[in-house]
């Protein structure tokens, strides 16, 4: 979730619904009508009128039918069984929860909460491999990545994420000491998994400069840290066809409103093959481009670190996008969520051909369907599901929303074959996260008052997980 995202949605001004049916209170009964629609709302244990339901991103297990979402309010991962559509467990390995900028706990996730120092954040499901005989969850947190047994929530390992060099400054013959989460308290945010090489990547967007940490999922050791010329990093995805990690870059000197950066997995795998000890291994690199002076602590000049195999990297400009979510879709599609921050700009959802990325590559589709964060692609319906919490009645950006320029949160559904919007279903306040499993789409939301943008929900609802039928 972006560091620009923490503000809650403003007043509701009438939701747009292209298709859908009335509320289905018995979410597992035979529906009276077909088509995507709100089915029920799942209560989250520990979420009451005295707290704000502070959640971030989600992951799904298509084999077991479980939906997982990170929950800062209860310092847990909420687990929903799609067979019953209820929260059946909360994994609590020791996340920091809601904190202020100084790192102190904020009770109830109320005023003073700082997005950049809170957790848990991003979440990935990693299949069983040579390292673990069971599926694992990789959850970003402040200063750390938690690895948990996906079935039981048992802690496998807490990995330090700090981005620091292997020695204290000045490093004789080594790289300069860079700022890291161990100093700043900033979170490891959104990640992605490379099943070809058993590597997990996680972004630390609040650092200066922002960096990605690459982790060997066979032993949970850090392989390398890669720094980016960037004002922040967002979601990432690994593509097995092009063999790259793709990460949304909030803005570089060349593309100040955003770009997709492609890091070759071969570069990271080569570092691991050369031999990496447990953290700190000291393997530091820079994505092609110059890290400017002024990082914390500020060096005398631009930081000189090895480049990540520049001939195999790729940069896709996104123009006026301010990107957040990213996902692989059908065929060669690489889809990017934009959340334009300038009031009056069209909110867009952009789709690119992943095999032809580069400065001369235009989008294959640019839909007025943005204003959100997480995207998921569901192969069963061949549709994209978008958590568009900052959508508006006009389709133009209202930023974080005001009384004069209100938000109308919706779950947006895009047909991947025709690349057209097929439904916009009323959603709850701050409903930026989305997951699809077992024939249902799951979209958490916070306090569902009209003033908060809780379209179509009971105003007395304290927040929870909205559940939609996908067909």
Tally of separate helices: 2
- Major sheet strand order: 10-11-12-13-17
Mean pLDDT across residues: 86
Distance between the termini: 28 Å
Radius of gyration: 21 Å
Structural class: mainly beta
CATH architecture: 7 Propeller
Task: Based on Cα principal axes, name the global outline.
Answer: globular
- Percent range of helical residues: under 10%
Instruction: Tell me the total number of β-strands.
Output: 29
Largest sheet at a glance? 5 strands, mixed
Oligomeric grouping of the chains = single chain
| CATH C-level | Mainly Beta
What's the CATH H-level superfamily name? YVTN repeat-like/Quinoprotein amine dehydrogenase
CATH fold naming? Methylamine Dehydrogenase, Chain H
Unreliable segments of 5+ consecutive residues: 3-32, 165-182
Strand content: 25-35%
Number of domains: 1
Structural features, described:
The chain has helices at residues 181-184, 265-273, and strands spanning 37-42, 55-61, 66-71, 76-81, 86-91, 123-126, 136-141, 144-149, 155-160, 191-194, 199-204, 211-216, 221-227, 233-239, 244-249, 259-264, 284-286, 314-317, 323-328, 333-338, 349-353, 365-367, 375-378, 383-388, 410-415, 420-426, 435-437, 440-445, 464-469. With 471 residues, the chain is mainly β. It has one domain (37-469): Methylamine Dehydrogenase, Chain H (7 Propeller), CATH 2.130.10. It has a five-stranded mixed sheet, with helices on one face. It is globular and about 55 Å long. The two termini are 28 Å apart.
